[in-house]
Design brief:
Blueprint: H1 4-13, E1 21-23, H2 29-37, E2 43-44, H3 47-54, H4 64-77, E3 82-85, H5 94-105, E4 111-115, H6 129-144, E5 151-155, H7 158-161, H8 167-184, E6 188-190, H9 197-206, E7 211-214, H10 222-228, E8 232-234, H11 238-257
Parallel strand pairs: 1-8, 2-3, 3-4, 4-5, 5-6, 6-7, 7-8
Length: about 260
């Protein structure tokens, strides 16, 4: 079994390879083992998927202790690097984010997603850029005190919360956040919801960090995303939704048979 430091080095290297790192987001130890056995090079959880598997809604509804215990179980089940979707850090303050990140490192995970949107019920929209960068800075300092280089995938929710036809109007704000998050210590920049290839290429060209996009039903092919400069591609909640759709079909057939 590789050490946590070795897994982190492997995970970091995958963001600079000839092809983007493609992550099929998992939700428990069983799905982690399935994806690993299929040839994955690294694993990442999805908060909506984990929440659903545990019987909770998305948006930091899963109790933090359960999130961390669940992450540790996933890490222990596989030999691959595991990144945890840690939503908005499970804390209202930067100091709280720092304390929680130290606990994440203790699970054996090598990275997190940290988003700049507010959790469900805690506010609306996206945090001010100064607030968001302060939280990344706190996360970086806390993580590096235990595992230098811990991977922070800083996510902006701007495109998720805006209509697709309005993304072009927001793209300069997206780019500004990518640059600010890089200065704050982020390792990569996640822009879920953005699917326009020209806008993706613009972000990749302007942002100093490896850019992560989500492969949704309308996303371009992996080759096109690579040409646009994307270095990481995530499936988000779509594998979980597909698995649940299959489960539903079995249950519906059983109900009809009964």
């Amino acid at each position: 079994m590789p050490t946590q430091t070795e897994k982190l080095a492997q995970f970091a290297s995958l963001h600079g390879g000839a092809q983007p790192l493609v992550l099929v987001n998992i939700w428990d130890a069983g799905s982690a083992r399935t994806v690993a056995a299929a040839g994955a090079r690294a694993l990442a959880t999805g908060s909506a998927s984990v929440g659903g598997a545990l019987g909770f809604a998305d948006g930091e509804a899963v109790p933090l202790d359960l999130v961390l215990d669940h992450a540790a179980r996933i890490v222990a089940a596989v030999d691959l690097p595991v990144s945890l979707d840690f939503e908005a850090g499970y804390a209202a303050s930067a100091d709280g984010v720092a304390a929680n990140i130290r606990r994440v490192v203790g699970t054996g995970a090598v990275g997190i997603n940290l988003e700049d949107g507010y959790p469900a019920g805690d506010g609306e929209g996206v945090r001010a850029i100064g607030d968001a960068t302060a939280r990344i800075e706190a996360a970086r300092a806390a993580a590096d005190s235990l595992l230098p280089g811990f991977w922070i995938n800083a996510r902006t929710d701007i495109c998720l919360r805006a209509k697709a036809e309005d993304h072009a109007a927001h793209i300069n704000d997206v780019i500004a956040r990518g640059k600010a998050y890089a200065e704050a210590g982020a390792s990569s920049f996640f822009v879920p919801g953005l699917r326009d290839m020209a806008l993706i290429a613009k972000v990749c060209a302007a942002c100093p960090l490896p850019v992560n996009v989500m492969a949704g039903p309308e996303a371009g092919g992996f080759g096109a995303l690579a040409e646009a400069g994307v270095r990481r591609i995530s499936y988000g909640p779509f594998p979980w939704r597909a698995a649940m759709a299959t489960l539903t079909s079995f249950a519906e057939r059983a109900a009809k048979a009964g």
